[in-house]
Write a structure and sequence with these properties.
Blueprint (H helix, E strand, L loop, with lengths): L13 E2 L1 H7 E6 L9 E10 L5 E6 L6 E7 L10 E4 L6 E6 L1 E9 L3 H6 L10 E3 L6 H8 L7 H12 L9 H15 L6 H8 L3 H11 L4 H18 L6 H7 L5 H12 L3 H12 L11
Antiparallel strand pairs: 1-4, 2-3, 3-8, 4-7, 5-6, 5-8, 6-9
Helix pairs in contact: 3-4
């Protein structure tokens, strides 16, 4: 069963989460009620690795944009301004941790940042850009002033308070409808085709694709495929021992070769190898980092 942190996300995206927690600490903090329709959660990642050591964290993509303040060791894609927005990432998201660092992240619900900022999420897809290009300076200033010694709960409260300053006076009905649809897409494993979304909403394919491009930054087909892939990974992590062909078919892949290619491209291992390594992790095997990839 996929661990759903709330209505529109899972925690199934982090690959090798137990290994990540041997190298870093990760804490999630719920957003306040006022921002509940827009923000999934806040999270804080800290690490302090000895010289010469590193760890690469790999995360499956979610249909979500993120606001991040990154302190410590700089990484690729982040310039001098450490307060950045990352749009929907359509591929696996790899980050190599070295030295000492601290990141405060605000994960928006699918479409949430676009709805708050009055902008188009498709302009940010597969991009990391200075947050000042997306959000007002008055919103960013309190977050920019945070330091690594602030607790995750206090940092999340600062981010919540800052973002509350741009809450719209009236809800966007298109965004509200889309958010309800995305919630259903996550929860209902039988939803696997865009034609099913058309039937469910009464929207044309063109309207669905236009709305998802504007608010989410990805197509409805992509979002469905990612949620179902999260289901597959979570099932393997939990010990699924049946036929991989049956698992693929139950999640919408009726061509096992196609499923294998997509799984390998996204996760980095064929599904059979991933299942073998998942078994080793559950049994407490302690192979080399390469063996546990």
């Amino acid at each position: 069963m996929v661990d759903r942190t709330n209505a529109t996300s899972t925690t199934a995206g982090i690959l090798r989460p137990a290994e990540l927690l041997r190298h870093a600490s990760l804490e999630r903090v719920a957003s306040g009620a006022a921002l509940g329709a827009y923000v999934e959660n806040h999270w804080c990642l800290r690490w302090d690795l000895p010289e010469g050591r590193s760890f690469t964290s790999r995360t499956l993509p979610h249909p979500a944009c993120t606001l991040r303040l990154e302190l410590g060791q700089p990484r690729a894609g982040v310039g001098e301004d450490r307060l950045v927005v990352t749009g929907v990432v359509t591929r696996r998201f790899d980050i190599t941790l070295t030295g000492r660092g601290w990141v405060l992240g605000t994960k928006f619900r699918p479409g949430g940042l676009a709805a708050l900022a009055g902008a188009r999420a498709r302009d940010w897809t597969d991009r990391t850009l200075p947050a000042a290009q997306v959000l007002p300076a008055a919103v960013l200033a309190p977050v920019r002033g945070l330091t690594a010694d602030v607790s995750p709960a206090d940092a999340a409260a600062v981010a919540d308070d800052a973002l509350s300053g741009i809450l719209p006076e009236r809800a966007d009905p298109v965004y509200a409808s889309l958010l309800g649809l995305v919630t259903t897409m996550l929860a209902d494993r039988d939803l696997q085709r865009v034609t099913q979304l058309e039937q469910l909403t009464g929207w044309s394919r063109r309207r669905l694709e236009r709305s998802f491009a504007t608010y989410v930054g990805a197509t409805p087909k992509w979002v469905l495929a990612r949620y179902r892939m999260h289901d597959v990974v979570a099932a393997l992590d939990a010990g699924y021992d049946g036929s991989l062909a049956d698992l693929a078919a139950s999640s919408g892949w009726y061509d096992q070769a196609h499923f294998g290619r997509e799984f390998t491209a996204l996760v980095g291992l064929p599904p059979s190898e991933y299942r073998a390594h998942a078994r080793e992790r559950r049994s407490g095997s302690t192979g080399s980092p390469q063996q546990r990839a």
